[in-house]
Design goal:
Number of helices: 9
Structural class: alpha/beta
CATH architecture: 3-Layer(aba) Sandwich
Mean pLDDT: 96
CATH topology: UDP-N-acetylmuramoyl-L-alanine:D-glutamate ligase
Order of helices and strands: EHEEHEHEEEHEHHEEEHHH
Strand content: 15-25%
Distance between the termini: 19 Å
CATH class: Alpha Beta
Helix content: 25-40%
InterPro entries: PM/HMP-P_kinase-1, PyrdxlKinase, Ribokinase-like
Largest sheet: 9 strands, mixed
Low-confidence stretches: none
Keywords: ATP-binding, Kinase, Nucleotide-binding, Thiamine biosynthesis, Transferase
Organism: Lacrimispora celerecrescens
Radius of gyration: 17 Å
Shape: globular
Number of domains: 1
GO cellular component, one term: cytosol
GO molecular function: ATP binding; hydroxymethylpyrimidine kinase activity; phosphomethylpyrimidine kinase activity; pyridoxal kinase activity
Length: about 270
Amino acid sequence: MRKKIAVIHDLSGYGRCSLTVALPILSALKVQCCPVPTSILSSHTGFSTYFFDDYTEKMPLYIEQWKKLDLSFDGIYSGFLGSEEQIGIVIDMIKEFRTPETTVLVDPIMGDHGKAYQTYTERMCSRMKELVGFGDIVTPNLTEACILTGRKYRSSGWKRSELLSMAAEIWDMGPDSVVITGVREGNYVTNVVAEKNREPHFLRSLHVGSERPGTGDVFSSILAAQTVKGIPLTESVKKAAGFVKASIIKSDELHVPIKNGVCFEEILSMLIRG
């Protein structure tokens, strides 16, 4: 049977992020992507103008039809959520569809570069901790890890013991595995892989190219697909980080505008080949 993942994310028509990333990435990895749209946008919010349609009221009606069909999923992957109410809807969905075989990945998209996104209130950040508790795997970037644990953000100079302490605090919220992404260590970017009762891994690679929107969505989509196929987390993180790096390099080579995200289509064959 083909693996299936319910992907809860927004749909941005332009800019390579969220569902427009998850659909091709999961398909390339031979996993069926079953979208649950949280909102519809003409482009991601990094552009100067965009259309936005909030799907909060529609999500329960949408999910109710899946219940009637008695659907089941190998994975549930939660991405960008636009309101406190949506966080509650996702928690209810996990409770409804989770089985012992379901892997739940929560990407707690709340902020970057030391600041929460404008849409995120203190109450939403608090509710996100509750959602994190329902995840098997949680993938915060450094900013989001600081928000979740109440630490003061700094862009560099983190001791590895501090990073592991943050991961342990996130463990205490409920998940078994925490991947803290995008930690700068000099000229390197490190992803911290912390699994309960296993030796932690600090996976470093040389920092390359420009920071671009959507790279976190590419990373988490690969991670979600790999883990439902039973591939170890550390190996999955290496694959995801390697593909993101290659996508950034290719995008810079082709002079793709920063706001357009990563031109992963050019190298999607890397994932298809396995």
